[in-house]
Amino acid sequence: MTTINPVTDLTVDAGVAVLTIDSPPVNALSANVRAGILAGVRQAVADDAVKAIVLICAGKTFIAGADITEFGKPPTGPSLPEVQAAIEDAPKPVIAAIHGTALGGGLEVALVCHYRVAARSAKCGLPEVNLGLLPGAGGTQRLPRIVGVEKALEMVTSGTHVPAPAAAEMGLVDLLTDDASLRADAIAFARQVVAEARPLRKVRDLDDKIAAARGKPEIFAEFRRANARRFRGFDAPEYNIRCIEAAVELPFDEGLKRERAMFVELLNGNQSAAQRYYFFASRQVWQLPDIGADTPLLPVKQVGIIGAGTMGGGIAMNFLNAGYPVTIVETSQQALDRGVRTIRANYENTAKKGRITAADIERRMALLTPTLQMERLADADLVIEAVFENMDVKKDVFGRLDRIAKPGAILATNTSALDVDEIAAATSRPEAVIGLHFFSPANVMKLLEVVRGAKTAKPVIRTSMELARKIGKIAALVGVCPGFVGNRMLAQRQREAQKLVLEGALPWDVDRVLYDFGFPMGPFAMSDLAGLDLGWVREKSSSSTLREILCEMDRRGQKTGAGYYDYDEKRNARPSPVVEQVIRDFAAKQGRTSRVVSEQEILERCIYPMINEGAKILEEGKAIRASDIDVIWVNGYGWPVYRGGPMFYADTIGLDKVLETLRRYEESFGADFKPAGLLEDLVAQGRKFGDLK
Ligand code: 3H9
Questions:
Q1: Topology (CATH) of 2-267
Q2: Is a pLDDT exceeding 80 seen at residue 121?
Q3: How is the chain split into domains, by residue range?
Q4: Mean pLDDT, to the nearest integer, of 233-254?
Q5: Predicted model pTM
Q6: Cα(404)–Cα(266) distance, rounded to whole angstroms?
Q7: Looking at CB atoms within 10 Å, which of 11, 117, 132, 266 has the fewest?
Q8: Which residues does the UniProt record annotate as the domain 3-hydroxyacyl-CoA dehydrogenase C-terminal (predicted)?
Q9: Cα(139) to centroid of ligand 1, in Å?
Q10: pLDDT surpasses 80 at 693
Q11: Which atom of ligand 1 is nearest to the CA of 280?
């Protein structure tokens, strides 16, 4: 064996050189890896005893892409195209042996190899779009030449990881092997290529698949039309599409140049910076500074859920999906039956879409034990309470649970705003109590706020985070405060939205500004969807807020065909002249005069107080880091990932500008805009949220 450099070595096995990259964690194409491949290929080419070269990786995966940490830094070492040229132009066959994931630049390296062999469990993809990028090392030019334009368009704009068997069907992989025998099979394949004197196949020379799409712009037009909603607001999908168009219409080298130029443009833009930031933020969120890997994990085999309503049922589905037996408790047979029926109906809908099979439904339902007896939770290792959002009710439930649950069980509340410490105090074991704030619909939304109480034990926290990962959530550890992180910040936006409409903006103006900013919908459309009557009681209603007035008029949201908007049978929303009048009358009654509110003011007044609240949350230590807040907002509230999250967004605007604007609004509108001390400090120090460690 020859060591090429610290991350690459070369062995020659009876005429086949095996070049192994070993650069944990994911063999990303760092300067060292690029240099190692280049030198290794050159050495193998120069060695007369070598007839073919196998490129393989050690560790858990084939090359998972360019090294994202190098982006934006001055280039060092050989460039990726230089490495690729050495492989593609090698006078001996080069075979990629893929396991784990061949992603981005990793797949682009495999695409310049003359053949590709893959372990059956491997996956291939060009996920650059998820980083706000496009494959910048020939991926957009080579992929359609192998798999055709339609499949290439789908792959580059979705970033999907295609399983090796499907990749083989597309022609992307030449041979599938068992996972354990990848290396041996790749070497045998290399020998076969040599023995049969197979040609040095260069993907760049293939033309038949793209010829089929040449002169047919309608393919691209139709693709854009069909995916307009999915791509809304993002730059990268369109750039990816244009590159595939270039692959079809331009000679290969011209296409490469076009791809390169567009890659650089995206790389230097704000969206990709935000999406790359988010990539690391969504990994960092799992790191808990004071809870190390030596903290014991508690065994969780049985899960109990109290409450079979929308929340409880949705939460139960998460655990059923992951194979946990779940006991679900209700107080009446009717509510229990309804809850179980809803879970089944949800699964049936998913099956109709082809995402699970009928057998999956039965397997999951068989894990569910519905009961009216809370005592049945005595065996549960984790119990999640999802009852009515009322402190007295929750305390009562936890008091009873305390007497039933076995020692060592985790007792969790799904409260979205209440004081977890007060709930914990209703038990004799506050160290076992934690908040698990799922978002609705709980079986769909990715976010979980894990709420750490003052006395919550570290093993309870670590176990909860690990469980979150197992059920496919993205979890952020937060502290106890009203609304925790997400809802506490949301309350700021809701308050301003309500104030804005009394000052002269209309609900659809506010919604449009936030929609254009990139949210899936604005606060008023959101209220209509959720129902304006959440927490509203007719007997206590006193026409004191717009919401009350609308509820009194039976405009309770989409479900009644009217809320802030009017809805047709297909639930399409139209601005409501009735509501406009109601607002004007209500504002006039309060002695307000209507004024023109600019779009800029709407945006700033909705978003800046949220940023300010985020700063207070950090100041109080209720979130571990600014990027956790961003992860919460992207996953729980539809914050557009191409703007990173509220704290990242504030950094991109400039904290001095945010502070100055808050001060201006404080003068006009009062203490709601009083800047957080942390914000003032950061500005004084010329630092950003991103600089906080
Ligand atoms: C590209 O290739 C551009 C080219 O077209 C053009 C170039 C000219 N770089 O996710 P995990 C780190 S763009 C640097 O927890 P998993 C990650 O931060 C790239 N670091 O593991 C984490 O670090 P830490 C296109 C990277 O098993 C650790 O590895 N490729 C990179 O759940 C483990 O990661 C992609 O977008 C990277 N490229 O999932 C693929 N990737 O331990 C991005 C990971 O310090 N990567 N790290 O927190 C992934 O999708 C997943 O990491 C993967 C493994 C599926 C590979």
A1: 2-enoyl-CoA Hydratase; Chain A, domain 1 (3.90.226)
A2: yes
A3: 2-267, 303-480, 505-589
A4: 98
A5: 0.95
A6: 57
A7: 11
A8: 483-567, 602-687
A9: 17
A10: no
A11: 18
3-state secondary structure string across 207-232: CHHHHCCCCCHHHHHHHHHHCHHHHC
Ligand 1 pocket member 128 (CB < 6 A): yes
Residue with tokens 């439930």: 397
Q: What is the largest CA-CA distance in the chain?
A: 93
CATH architecture of the region 303-480: 3-Layer(aba) Sandwich (3.40)
Alpha carbon distances (Å) from 485 to 285, 488, 618:
14, 5, 10
Rounded to a whole number of angstroms, the CA Rg of the chain reads 29
> Does ligand 1 come within 6 angstroms of the Cβ of 111?
no
User: Are 303-480 and 505-589 in the same CATH fold?
Assistant: no
* pLDDT score recorded for residue 551: 95
First to last CA, the chain: 43
- Whether ligand 1 lies within 6 angstroms of the CB of 125 is answered as no
Residue 491: name the closest of 416, 404, 381, 559 by CA: 416
Q: What SS3 string covers 247-292? A: HHHCCHHHHHHHHHHHHHHHHCCHHHHHHHHHHHHHHHCCCCCCCC
User: Running DSSP on this structure, what letter comes out for residue 675?
Assistant: P
Is 70 annotated as catalytic? Answer: no
505-589 folds as: N-(1-d-carboxylethyl)-l-norvaline Dehydrogenase; domain 2 (1.10.1040)
pLDDT tens per residue across span 453-487: 999 999 999 999 999 999 999 999 999 999 999 99
Q: Ligand 1: does its nearest atom lie under 6 Å from the Cβ of 685?
A: no
Per-residue confidence (pLDDT) for residue 311, from 0 to 100: 95
The verdict on the CB of residue 42 being under 6 Å from ligand 1 is no
The span from the CA of 559 to the CA of 672, in Å, is: 33
- Please state the atom number of ligand 1 nearest to the C-alpha of residue 60: 27
Q: Write the Ramachandran bin of 59: left for phi over 0, alpha for psi from -120 to 50, otherwise beta.
A: left
- For a mutational test of ligand 1's pocket, the pick from 26, 83, 103, i.e. the residue with the most ligand atoms closer than 8 A to its C-beta, is 26
* Catalytically annotated residue among 82, 88, 108, 503: 108
Q: Which of 70, 88, 128, 245 is catalytic?
A: 128
State pLDDT tens for residues 589-639. Answer: 999 989 999 999 999 999 999 999 999 999 999 999 999 999 999 999 999
Residue of minimum CA distance from atom 29 in ligand 1? 25
